[in-house]
Amino acid sequence: MKVIVVGCTHAGTVAVTQILQEHPEAEVTVYERHDNVSFLSCGISLYLGGQVKRLEDMFYSSPEQLRDLGAKVKMKHDVLKIDAKAKTVTSADLVTTELTTESYDKLIMATGSYVVVPPLVGIDNSRVLLCKDYAQAQEIYKTAQNHKHVAIVGGGYVGVELAESYADTDHEVTLIQSRDQLLNNYVDKALADKIAAMLTDHGVHVYLNERAQAFSGAEQVVVETNAGKHEADLVIVCTGFVANTELLRGQVDMDRRGAIITNEYLQTSDPDIYAAGDACTVHYNPTGKSAYIPLASNAVRQGILAATNIFGYIQKYMGTQGTSAMAIFGHTLASTGLTLSAAKAAGFDAAAVTFHENYRPEYMPSTAMLTIVLVYDRANRRILGAQLFSKHEVAQSANTISVCIQNQNTIDDLAYVDMLFQPNYDQPFNYLNLVAQMAVAQEKQAQ
Question: Is 238 designated active site?
Fold first, then answer.
């Protein structure tokens, strides 16, 4: 079988590896416009904050490794056209400008996403940078060394992580968010306000409800918003991502934002084209609907499954809960599934409870306060989501709730599911049991 993989970050890298490990006889060609593969953009903030010393350590594969597996790897090749009817791919060698057209039996679209660039005056200013790939990370690191006041536009995960990194490296930081809270896709406002207060306590200037409208200035960049102006030496734009799917527009089904729609085998509406990673939608289990959730965890799973299923309908995609976590000033913030506000917006009769207690007994030499917000559907008592915050490591507890959502468990299930008790780790009832018991009690009172 002749397979072409377009794009080689997370989904593309694992897809090529999976194909050639399971089917070494397959003829696999990879097209990648950059000079590297498998870059972990989630490590950029760790590098900028000095926790990771070498940006090159953020690669977990290389073109040479893929070639050693048997792949034909075409780096610095820009795919100009995909003809789904003719089953061909036309590309340009960015070094020689040579054009080539190649046929395929199956194609995996793994072109990922790109940073949403707002159509603003001054966005092309040399001191206004984007943050996603290896080259951008290098430029940010180089520029920030000599520019001490950094303004970050966008208060999602990337923006908040960058704000923490720069606050920890003796920079003055301004964080501008167009919504009334930070991290609006991950946590509800009460917890977001805690994060904002923590950033403020560490010297970050946080501005909410301010939308960037233009960039101006030479020696300093002026960020003009609907509420005023902010001066900085460097601006980093982190305003979200959009699927990079223009090559297949009009040839396969897409959602209204241009993300490719796939079936449970990662197959598009064209039976010979599969998609994985940020280029496509996911099946979002909390709602039972398609959604666009660009996460590396989704990409690697989808990449392996797409590579498996081009040889037949072998392994179904289970969907996702959008589980994620971040470390911030010695705390862990983790979330999975729907926030309460998102659940209500999706039409659920949703409710939430908040657990705020020490994660283990006070008689232990030390303990730490733990906050858990558990979101559930009052109609059928199913768990819809959770948010966790503590100095204690709670990321794996978010994974546990993710499994509960995946399996359509109820608050009653979680309230009494068997969990270990050992004073080093928790109370006689684990904190996940306890927050679920709070939800059960809340529903009893409402009857």
Answer: no
